[in-house]
Amino acid sequence: MREYPAPIQTLVALLERLPGVGPKTALRYVFFLLKEAKTTVPALVTALQSLEQALRPCRLCRTYTTDELCDVCRDPRRDPSTLCVVADARDVGTIGAAGFQGRFHVLGGTISPLEGMGPDALELHTLTARLQEDRSIHEVILAFNPDPDGETTMLYLSRLLHAFPVKVSRLARGLPVGADLEFADEATLGDAIKRRWEV
Ligand SMILES: [Zn+2]
Questions:
Q1: Whole-angstrom Cα distance, residue 44 to residue 40?
Q2: What is the pLDDT of residues 141-195, one digit of tens each?
């Protein structure tokens, strides 16, 4: 990479941090952007800035939104009795697409001892505050990847939520062990939601 000027090296290094992008792909992107310096680049800069400036966490569920409340939390047709707890805001779209009609709570990650991520780093206080205030919630569905961090998080949550008068369930084992929710097809995920079991 030393044969390229510093601005190219810097951008390659940044793009390589994106999931699934290696050095060759990063370099291809940079040379594409150099050709698009007057068109795509300014639009990309604006879009990247608005990610930081225009988005904020929803007051209730902590997903990304441009308003105080996100579309799901504002939608009166949503079933207020079921709350699906997920790791990332991305999972809201995945589980919504699988036909889930309730509401969500985004923890912002999973408990991961290997990565030094403890419960304090997660949106747990907002979840418990929500359960205390909103008595229409009767069931909490834990929808995490069936991997070690997901299992640790679900175990922690099931203990934490014992203090509340809600049924706690988790997705059925239709999902392959170690599978990522993101890659499960909608029918499989929809089935795993329907066949959820109480913990
Ligand atoms: Zn929301």
A1: 6
A2: 999 998 899 999 999 999 999 999 999 999 887 666 566 777 778 888 888 888 8
Question: What's the gap in Å between 26 CA and the centre of ligand 1?
Answer: 34
Cα 72 to averaged position of ligand 1 atoms, centre (Å): 6
Distance 74 CA to ligand 1 centre (A): 7
Tokens of 193: 């939601």
Report the DSSP beta bridge partners of residue 106. 86
CA separation for the pair 93, 56 (Å, rounded): 17
* Distance of CA 98 from the midpoint of ligand 1 (Å): 18
Residue type, 195: R
| Antiparallel, parallel or unpaired: β 197-198 and 167-170 | antiparallel
Query: 53: left (phi > 0), else alpha (psi -120 to 50), else beta?
Result: alpha
pLDDT tens figures, 85-102? 999 999 999 999 999 999
